[in-house]
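Quick one: structure tokens for this chain, please?
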Amino acid sequence: MSSIMNFSLPVTDPVTQFLLILIIILIIPIIFNKIKIPSLLGLIIAGIAIGPLGLNIMAKDASFDLFGTAGLLFIMFLAGLDTDMTEFKKNSAKSAVFGVSTFLFPFLLSAAVSYFLLDLSLISSVLVGAMIAPHTPIMYPIVTKFDVQKNIAVSVTLGGTLITNIVSFVIIIVVVGMSTGDVNQSFWVQLSISVVIFAAIMAFLFPLAARFFFKKFQDNILQFIFVLVMLFLGAFVAEVAGIEKIIGALFAGMALSRLIPRTSPLMNRIQFVGNSIFIPFFLISVGMLVDLRAFVKDFQTIKVAIFLTAIALISKYLAAWITQKWLGFSVDQRRIINGLSTAQAAATLAVVMVGYKLEMLNDAFLSGTLIMILVTCTVAALQTQTGSKNIAQQKVSVPDAESDNKSSEEERILISVSNFETVEDLVNLSTMIKSQSSKQELYALNIINSNRSTASDDQNATKILDIASEVASATDNSIHRLMRYDVNIINGITNVIKENHITDLVLGVYKKKGISSAFIGSLNEGILAKSNSTTFIYKAAQPIATIKSHRIFVPEGGEKELGFSSWLLKLTNIALNSGTKLIFYSSEKTLSYIREFQKKHTIDCEFVEFTDWDDFLILSRDFGKDDNLIFVLSRKVGLSYHRYMCKVPDYLNKYFQQNSFILIFPMQLGISISHITEEVEAISRH
């Protein structure tokens, strides 16, 4: 018989502890969303209430340290994953403006106040400055909730965060070294070497290891565990190099950002686990550190708390305001910058604990810092939510470039699934080409020959459609399942296209088989002749997430086709969702239209003039196994049809058997999509 449960406080039973935490994580968002206050703030308040310095319902034991640390690292890792590296590089100068201002103002102001008003020594004052200058973007989940993480203000803030945190931690390392007498020439040499090695590992070894693993192992659980390993390995390597672990987690996310597409099942699992368990644990653990009673016990604590809080709020706002004015941002973008950079949490805690252990900071500073953390997190949550909500509403009310090109109501993607080997790859491609604003579900079709169907055929078709549904649901997309009996596969597909007003058709090619001219001929005479959707024929030699670049060959005069902007938008979606580079090959005239189209999107593009197909094999010497080849072809009656298109299957079979490829047949005249026509006319007028 089990022993009688002990109901004394604090709760020590692990089952009861975990139950209480889960109830808090469940209830807080419901309550705080109703009163229009960010639930992240509610979790911090809940931590204050149940913690040892509050009602003492629960002790802050090793489990909170473990899960809280994991949550902090998850926040930084997710921020890194969501970083568009193309946008990040493009805005590096803007990030530098914010990074310098958000470091200098808090550092100088807090160091001066500590030295002249709080009577600290010079070295202790410098430590306080390095404590206030860095920040932790713990309000980042609010940004992702409103789906504005791609806004330039977020990119600039994350870049600035990286700059100010690195500089602050270098100063802290030097201060600690000075306090122990270890700062000499060998100290600087060792620090420089370790930082360089850390950066090299993150920039080269992490992406290399991840690409190898994702290509070799496609098991969902193994991939998720691998990502966790890379996350904590990044934090570990950073600490070994003498850098704070949160920097390592951020760098690890940035290193893997191009290998974990935003629309992938893996990304969905990472965000789900982080946002539902680990990040709430971290926020609750932060609240547990705050002792509100200290605010009324000691005047020195009150004095320190007021000074530190005022400095943090004023200096961080000033940095955001200067960045807004300098870069011409809106008020709501300033709110996001201010919200993401105001919250003092992990970095501040790390520094104050270092100073406290070295007896450079006293109890008043420790308690005052915890009060500052509570106030800054409150202000940061309100600022971030207001700015993110307003920008999200503007995105809905003002049509963006994507909705100008193709309305979400008209986009209908049909996936023809008939083989267990290709179904997952086809669904993953379809979720990548799908417009982010589209609310339409995907269509998955399996056709069974009605003349010779068996019970086994029906069972296989059901299983294939089940797999398609599971893969799509893992990316938060739904599948409309279609099982059709027909004596002719081509008739079955074309009839479904007409019945469901399909705009895009995705077909698959077996990995071990090539593609023949006869196949292209039957496709032209069959599906392409009887339907008018943009058709994608996909062979996946490796997962699409592991592709380094997409090399796209566009026929001269491709801009004359009605479906020009339609397929171009689909490829743009791939780049937006994966961060992969697009390299276009075509005539200079056609490339000029593509350049004009891509000006509306912040993606990594390269343009190469190419017209002589007799030189194709010479050009292909630069291609690698991790390149995806995309050929934009045409129906024989199309305006951009060219005789070289008949050679494409032979090229692929002879020279590129190890490469993934996509053949695209744009829609022709016959479908009335007014906004696409207007897009082409607008580009033509240019």
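Residues 398-408, 670-686 have pLDDT under 50 and may be disordered.
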